[in-house]
Amino acid sequence: MKVLVINCGSSSLKFQLIDAETEQLLFKGLCERIGIDGSQISYTATGKDKVTKVTPMPEHKTAVSLVLEALTESGVVKSLDEIDAVGHRIVHGGENFTKSVVINEDVVKAIEEVSDLAPLHNPANVIGIRACQDLMPGTPMVAVFDTAFHQTMPEEAYLYGLAYDIYKKYKIRRYGFHGTSHSYVSKKVAEIEGKPYDSLKTIVCHLGNGASVSAVKNGKCVDTSMGLTPLEGLIMGTRSGSIDPSVIDTLEKKMNLNTAGVMNVLNKESGVYGLSENISSDFRDLEDAYIEGNKDAIRAVDCFCYQVLKYIGAYTAAMNGVDCIAFTAGVGENSGFVRKLIIDRLGFLGVKCNDEANKVRGEEKLVSTEDSKVRVYVVPTNEELAIARDTYELLK
Ligand code: ADP
Fold first, then answer.
1. Sheet harboring 201-207: ordered strands across?
2. I want to staple 261 with a disulfide (CB 3.0 to 4.6 A). Which of 110, 156, 257, 267 is the partner?
């Protein structure tokens, strides 16, 4: 079964074609600047050179049709009939979706109903579904939710300290994101360990531009750092992570901004970017500056690592212990430097870093020593493959 995986953002569309039986990646690419001047599509058919075309994409439907055109033009498929299914990444499933589902009109309506919880993401996801329905009528589609894996959290973990009535009326609660990644990585850890998934306590640190930590106990997510939206939790690339809610009101007054203006500050001008006095949101730049002794970079990276450390401590308590810790996503997979800063502070858990192994980049690897009490792994995430797997499972 050939599955087209679509991750539709407000101005971008990422895509992959995966043979779900062999799990082979056949084709991948990205449409950028949809609805903005200078839009372009770039793609790589496995084994061939990357192709980039600058071409107008006034809306998402044009982007999807360009993706389909690229698939046939590059010879990856002879005709669109060869695409058996489409798997859509959907950011917010609210409380409606605890697992992936085959898309029908009711599903689209339910995704739209929770759009106010993810106003930047869900409408774009629905546009992606509609565009595929128009251009590939009759092709079955599956929705895979970022929030679904976290729906197993107990009430004590997902409720905020707000009036219960507010939760009941408005569904204001912790949902968590990056669920597809946390699920994929925690399962992979069990596989590497050679132990049943439901027998392990694992903490997954998904550290990328967006970053979150989750606690997975006996195969179920019991807590995660992101909340109602992906703004809560860790300090991220440009996002503040958790702050005292009163900061918003204070900044409105001090900076003479409205709420939207402050939210922009919290989402786009904060995190390690803001903390480093705007050196960069990219950990490669921050790492270089840190090593040179740049105080701004040191401040930002140390604050980031401290937050990860605190979540690991908290989730060890939440699970009454931890067997494995996994690092994944851009920073988690590639930065031995950041990993070491965190692992070296886990002595209280009996964790020891294997400095040689920890030099690894983007590969599955045990990075703790043989006598470390908790095993620490680098596990590259693969959200697209996880989406293709779910799509295949539901439709085969
Ligand atoms: P997202 O999907 O949230 O945009 P990614 O998981 O792709 O983020 O992570 C992107 C981030 O990974 C980059 O901003 C960069 O900070 C970090 N990164 C990528 N490669 C490296 C590397 N070799 N060393 C350190 N950090 C890296």
1. 220-224, 211-217, 201-207, 324-328, 375-378, 365-366
2. 257
Name the segment(s) of the chain with CATH classification 3.30.420.40.
Answer: 2-145, 196-378
* DSSP assignment of 127-183: HHHHHHHHHSTT--EEEEETTGGGGG--HHHH--SS-HHHHHHH--S---S-HHHHH
Which residue's CA is the closest to the ligand 1 atom numbered 14?
Answer: 282
Backbone phi, psi, residue 244, to 5°: -65, 125
> Does ligand 1 lie within 6 Å of residue 330's CB atom?
yes
With CA atoms as reference, report the closest residue to 189 among 387, 367, 379, 385.
Answer: 379
The shares of helix, strand and coil residues in the chain, as percent rounded to the nearest 5, are: 40, 20, 40
Largest CA distance in the chain: 60
Q: What are the tens digits of pLDDT across the range 227-249?
A: 999 999 999 999 999 999 999 99
| Rg of the chain on CA atoms, in Å | 21
**Domain covering 2-145 assigned CATH 3.90.190.20 in the classification:** no
Residue burial 10-35, b: 16+ Cβ < 10 Å; e: rest: ebbbbbbbbebeeeebbbbbbbbebe
Is-contact 139 132, C-beta < 8 A?
A: yes
Ligand 1, from 206, 331, 363: best to mutate by most atoms within 8 Å of Cβ? 331
Exactly one of 49, 134, 146, 296 is catalytic; which is it?
146
CB of 284 closer than 6 angstroms to any ligand 1 atom: yes
> Coil, strand, or helix at residue 284?
helix
| Whether pTM exceeds 0.85 | yes
What gap in Å lies between CA 180 and CA 147, rounded to an integer?
A: 8
Residue with tokens 């293709």: 388
Please, what is the Cα angle at 93 between 21 and 163, to 5 degrees?
Answer: 150
Contact 76, 45 (CB under 8 A): yes
As a CATH number, domain 196-378 is 3.30.420.40
pLDDT digits (tens, 9 = 90+) for 251-290: 999 999 999 999 999 999 999 999 999 999 999 999 999 9
Residues 331 and 352: their CA atoms lie apart, in Å, by: 20
Give the H/E segment covering residue 250: helix 246-254
